[in-house]
């Protein structure tokens, strides 16, 4: 492994460039000295001013948030007066010695931090006290959906971020003004999910919440607007159910005396529609209202069941007619 370093020696000094690493280490030790720097308090806590934290999300695929980056300014980490070095890159093991925002995702169901081969964290300190902190993670977020028009529905899902322990008086979150959310997709990829696609650009805004202790916290919200792709349901639900209904109508052309054939065809079509409807419901959450797909499957089942009832009625009427004809002919 080759390490390249740039070291600016003090004027008149004859130190070699190989001493750059130890020089940077001395700067870090100076900045993070426990007697002068306290990682347990926010940068502007003593000034009674909220520390502004810029937040940026980096998404490699729509169904997985890959990284969150935060930037802020900590005047305690300003080292421009002692060195010409522009930036210090901290090892992930030294990050615990520096204050970082306690940002969390309000609607998170599960999350994991990438730790292969080490915890994937980035921490850069610039000579003016500007700090960049980035961490790779994967999140599963909750989203309340309205399925009344399923599968011809559109959904709005939000990403909520908030400071957990610091009130709005100490930490103020705000979106990165240039690119709040970056989709790191290839040029040939589309911003789509297997079942959804974006039908309008995402929206970002700042917000605030008040907890049960009447304390106000700074938060951020990003809204994603999805519309369901009908391709799967056209090929797996709508077209097959229409074919089953048409198949049940074939019994109208079968001779009325072919009782086993017509009854078997009608019963099979009814059972097939029932099984298909059950399979669709099993893949959806239980809701108390009727969905559009329920109406479609119910109407299809009604047509198939009506075809079976039609044969039962015609069979009875045919036997009655034959009986009357036989009686009249015998007389």
UniProtKB/TrEMBL annotation:
- Annotated Neurotransmitter-gated ion-channel ligand-binding domain ranges read 26-224
Query: What are the alphabetically sorted keywords of the record?
Result: Cell membrane, Ion channel, Ion transport, Membrane, Receptor, Signal, Transmembrane, Transmembrane helix, Transport
Membrane topology, as annotated, equals: Multi-pass membrane protein
The residue ranges crossing the membrane are 230-254, 295-314
Q: Which GO terms describe its cellular component?
A: plasma membrane
Q: Which GO terms describe its molecular function?
A: extracellular ligand-gated monoatomic ion channel activity; transmembrane signaling receptor activity
According to the entry, every stretch annotated as the Neurotransmitter-gated ion-channel transmembrane domain falls at 238-329
Localization in the cell: Cell membrane; Membrane
**Predominant subcellular localization, coarse grouping:** membrane
Q: Which InterPro entries match?
A: GABAA/Glycine_rcpt, Neur_chan_lig-bd, Neur_chan_lig-bd_sf, Neur_channel, Neuro-gated_channel_TM_sf, Neuro_actylchol_rec, Neurotrans-gated_channel_TM, Neurotransmitter_ion_chnl_CS
Q: Which family does it belong to?
A: Belongs to the ligand-gated ion channel (TC 1.A.9) family.
What is the protein's given name? Answer: Glycine receptor subunit alpha-2
Organism, by scientific name, is: Magallana gigas
């Amino acid at each position: 492994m080759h390490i390249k370093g740039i070291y600016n020696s003090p004027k008149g000094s004859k130190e070699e460039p190989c001493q750059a690493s130890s020089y940077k280490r001395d700067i870090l030790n100076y900045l993070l000295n426990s007697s002068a720097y306290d990682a347990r308090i926010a940068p502007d806590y003593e000034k009674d001013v909220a520390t502004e934290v810029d937040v940026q999300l980096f998404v490699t695929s729509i169904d997985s948030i890959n990284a969150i980056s935060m930037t802020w300014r900590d005047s305690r980490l300003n080292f421009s007066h002692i060195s010409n070095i522009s930036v210090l890159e901290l090892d992930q093991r030294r990050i615990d010695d520096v204050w970082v925002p306690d940002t969390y995702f309000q609607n998170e169901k599960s999350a994991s931090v990438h730790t292969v081969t080490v915890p994937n964290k980035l921490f850069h300190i610039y000579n003016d006290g500007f700090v960049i902190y980035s961490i790779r993670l994967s999140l599963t977020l909750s989203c309340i959906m309205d399925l009344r028009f399923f599968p011809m529905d559109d959904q709005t899902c939000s990403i909520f971020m908030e400071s957990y322990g610091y009130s709005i008086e100490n930490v103020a979150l705000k979106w990165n003004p240039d690119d709040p959310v970056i989709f790191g997709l290839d040029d040939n990829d589309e911003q789509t999910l297997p079942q959804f696609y974006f039908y309008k650009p995402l929206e970002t805004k700042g917000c605030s919440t008040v907890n049960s202790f009447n304390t106000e916290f700074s938060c951020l919200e990003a809204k994603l607007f999805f519309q369901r792709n009908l391709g799967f349901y056209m090929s797996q639900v709508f077209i097959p159910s229409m074919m089953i209904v048409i198949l049940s109508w074939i019994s109208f052309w079968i001779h009325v005396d072919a009782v086993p054939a017509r009854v078997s065809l009608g019963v099979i079509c009814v059972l097939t529609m029932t099984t298909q409807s059950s399979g669709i419901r099993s893949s959806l959450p239980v809701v108390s209202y009727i969905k559009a797909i329920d109406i479609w499957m119910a109407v299809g089942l009604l047509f198939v069941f009506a075809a079976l009832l039609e044969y039962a009625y015609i069979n009875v009427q045919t036997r009655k007619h034959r009986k009357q004809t036989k009686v009249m002919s015998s007389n």
